[in-house]
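To fix ideas, we quote verbatim a fold written out as tokens:
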Amino acid sequence: MVQKVKKDKTPQQAYLALTRLCARGERCTADAARLMRNWGVAATDAQQIVNRLVSERFIDDKRYSQSFVREKINLSHWGQGKIISALKAKGIHSNYIAEALEQFLETDTESRLKTLLLKKMRTTKSKNSADLRAKLFRYAASQGYDFSQIRDIVESIVKEDNGCEYFD
């Protein structure tokens, strides 16, 4: 197997590569810094490049957080907890996170969670209703939803359906 040889980039090459990447999709400052570390760009040069990209509006953490939240809610069906954790891990300021969540979580979280759990219930095998509840609860929690919402919706789903065909 042939290994790729890692080629370091000059600051100018890194800047050009990042402008191309940012033009194709949203990136945050942490993404840019990580890429430049991998490319072997010196930390001082990397900071200058990030500052330039921010001033030229190629990178905007506020815009990035809004795009991230929209994608994760609509396509990945993540809950608020998982979104917050992911954005904090990327170093996004908490004000930007709160603003983005406020804008996009106005949609009906409970109906999205119920739809997600009904879909999961169709593919879940369980021994009894308690096992089904536990599996649905764990799944929803792993998606970042609030425990009180999960409890209420799981209880309503299992009571409505009795779930007999879902048990082994």
Notes: The mean pLDDT is 89. The two ends are 46 Å apart (CA to CA). The CA atoms of residues 26 and 67 lie 7 Å apart.
